[in-house]
Amino acid sequence: MTTEGNTRSAQEGSYQPAQKKSRLFLFLVGVVVVLVIIGIFTMLQHREQYNALAKETEKLAVPNVAVIHPTVEPAQEDLVLPSTLQAYTESPIYARTTGYLKKWYHDIGSHVHQGELLADIETPEVDQQLSQARADLGTTQANENLSRITASRYEELIKTDGVSKQEVDNAVGDYAARRAAVASAQANVRRLEELESFKHVYAPFSGVVTRRNVDIGNLINAGNGGAAQELFFLAATDPIRAYISVPELYAPVVHPGVGAYLELTLYPGQKFQAKVVRTADAIDLASRTLNTEVDIPNKDSQLLPGGYAQVHLLVGVKGTRLQVPVNALLFRAEGLRAVVVDANHKVHLQQLVIGRDYGTALEVLQGLSPQDWIVLNPPDSLDEGMQVNVKQMPQTTGPAAPAGGTAPPPGNVPPNTNGGSPQGSKK
């Protein structure tokens, strides 16, 4: 019994350290497992953050653009073009002699007839030169008369051999020289008389005085040299003319005799009848337009030179015409382009054919449709096929976009500044 008890005690004593070692091992394994789990969780969390950062970076790399529809122009039967009215004949009036302004007879707004006196100029120097020239003419005429008498006497004396042949030739030659001197003096007198007549400034044609640049006592220089030498500016305004630039597309239907009328903001609702009188018969290479002149009767002087007018050419223009703002265009070396966004939020540089220029907008003849979405203020960095985020802007000018237009998919559309969803995008 004692031997069995000792053996059992020895076994129990050896089992307790083994049990302790097993528990320690399990504890260490548990710690390792926990650390591994924590590591895996941390790696997954870092990977998720990295993916989120990559997505955010990729999203921020896509540019945001504002888009609108091209504006559909109102339907009309005529071709409307902007123009500036011009006088039919206009000319600056200069002095042809030097002196001081003695008096002017017509101020701005005065209607004058051809040949009517506009101003008088005092010309003391020319007056004295004319007096001297006339005196010189009298002297040469007296010398010419004396030389003529002498030559006649010598021609009679030679018949009786009273003088030599040489003396006769000398007298005849002196008479011819005196006659030439008289002709020269007469020409000089006529020249100064012409200058003297220029002291009276007359209207070269009938019209209205639009400018008067001199006053009594001003020094007047002959010709148009120097500063402010223009005395008056005269314009004939009946009829009055307007020059328009007809787009090349409409050039074949515009010719002399085509009817037209003008509309001015000064006279709302009033139409001024006109007619095409001539064209340049050549397309301007810079603007691709046909220079055309339209004449308008203006007996009542309602139309003023320099006024802005809309010229309506009755050429039967039909079809859909579009307008785009100038800040929706790209000016590239290869020509004018519009940036169109497709249903996949990708941009395309669309070539355009431009019609009329309205200042802040341009007429588009070819290249766009009313359902297209075009980018406002496109950056130069945009290129063919680039991905963009879109935001529809309200139409600011012209009629609203057509109902058939479909906005690009709004998956990447940024929220607008008011916190709502973009106007016109699908939910």
The residue-averaged pLDDT reads: 79
What Rg, in angstroms, do the CA atoms define? 49 Å
By CATH reckoning, the class of the domain at 87-202 would read Mainly Alpha
Are there runs of 5+ residues with pLDDT below 50, and where?
Answer: 397-407, 409-427
Topology as a string of helices (H) and strands (E): HEEEEEEHHEEEEEEEEEEEEEEEE
- Structural category is alpha+beta
Q: Biggest β-sheet: count, sense, barrel?
A: 6 strands, mixed
Tertiary shape: elongated
Distance between termini? 92 Å
**What percent of the residues sit in helical stretches (DSSP H or I)?**
25-40%
Count of distinct strands = 22
Q: What would CATH call the homologous superfamily of the domain at 87-202?
A: Helix hairpin bin
Strand content: 25-35%
| Tally of separate helices | 3
Query: Which CATH architecture of the domain at 87-202 would you pick?
Result: Orthogonal Bundle
CATH fold type of the domain at 87-202: Helix Hairpins
List the helices and strands and how they pair.
Blueprint: H1 2-61, E1 64-68, E2 71-72, E3 79-94, E4 99-104, E5 111-112, E6 117-122, H2 124-157, H3 165-197, E7 200-202, E8 207-212, E9 219-220, E10 230-247, E11 259-263, E12 272-283, E13 289-296, E14 308-313, E15 322-325, E16 329-332, E17 335-341, E18 347-351, E19 353-357, E20 361-366, E21 373-376, E22 389-392
Parallel strand pairs: 1-22
Antiparallel strand pairs: 1-21, 2-15, 3-10, 3-14, 4-6, 4-9, 5-8, 6-7, 8-10, 10-13, 11-12, 11-14, 12-13, 15-20, 16-17, 17-18, 17-21, 19-20
Helix pairs in contact: 2-3
